[in-house]
Design a protein that fits this description.
Layout (H helix, E strand, L loop, with lengths): L1 H17 L23 H5 L7 H11 L9 E7 L4 H12 L3 H18 L3 E7 L4 H7 L3 H9 L4 E4 L4 E3 L11 H7 L4 E3 L9 E9 L3 H12 L4 E9 L1
Parallel strand pairs: 1-7, 2-3, 2-6, 6-7
Antiparallel strand pairs: 4-5
Helix pairs in contact: 4-5, 5-7
Bound molecules: zinc ion (ZN).
């Protein structure tokens, strides 16, 4: 485990060093140290298509599950992906091309959004885990890097070791709505040393589509005694 963390740290530093500093959205050059964000230029930061308020985002779960099956109590997101192709492409870039820095920067923006939404106090912050096979392919868990940015604005103990993902699932976006529902069952396993009893938990992920995965994780945590489960995603599709 120490070894993995060590390698991850080296890779992140190397990537920072070699990465050309271009905006992930419009590809414009960003001068080193001239911007707070290395992957997002001011123009693109200023024209982020913001996601609707939390109650509208939480409704997404009720569109796909009956009332008694919704385990998410509150939900927020940063970006609305509807008709905003370039922001969608950037999401795909950071999902598939190892751009952990962009995930971190989106995480900071999401954290600021959560302050506006009044969602800032948690006992635990859990990045939705990916399976180790996927971790090897991708080199990192994007949700973990989003969480690193987010915790600068939201209180709670954050760790990627609270929950483990067991089953290797096919990339959700490749599946139909019905297949997605079947594809997630009881795929998460809580760390034996992690006791969520009576706690307020925030789940962090990249994109909210049907919400199956995140709702399934919330269900597992509530069966283990969690009092409240909110979720925050960079984007809502
Ligand atoms: Zn830009």
């Amino acid at each position: 485990m120490v070894n993995t963390t060590f390698i991850r740290a080296i890779r992140d530093n190397l990537f920072d060093f070699v990465a050309p500093e271009h905006c992930a959205i419009c590809n414009k050059h960003i001068k080193p140290n001239s911007a707070q964000f290395k992957m997002l230029c001011y123009a693109c930061l200023n024209s982020i298509p913001y996601a609707p308020p939390p109650n509208i985002i939480r409704n997404r779960f009720f569109e796909h599950f009956s009332e008694d099956k919704v385990a998410i109590d509150g939900a927020t997101a940063l970006i609305s992906l509807k008709e905003n192709a370039q922001y969608l492409e950037a999401i795909h870039k950071f999902k598939y091309a190892g751009l952990s820095q962009l995930a971190y920067e989106y995480g900071k923006l999401l954290g600021r959004r959560m302050q506006i939404d009044g969602m800032t106090e948690y006992n635990y912050i859990i990045p939705v885990p990916i399976h180790k096979v996927k971790y090897r392919e991708r080199g990192y868990n994007q949700s973990y890097h989003i969480s690193l940015g987010l915790i600068e604005f939201v209180a709670g103990e954050m760790s990627d070791e609270f929950v483990k993902r067991n089953q290797y699932t096919i990339t959700q976006t490749a599946l139909s709505k019905e297949q997605r529902k079947r594809n997630v069952g009881n795929i998460f396993e809580l760390n034996k040393k992690f006791d969520p009893n009576g706690s307020r938990i925030l789940l962090v992920d990249d994109v909210l589509t049907t919400g199956s995965t995140i709702n399934s994780l919330a269900k597992s945590l509530k069966s283990a005694g969690a009092e409240r489960c909110d979720c925050a995603t960079v984007a809502i599709a």
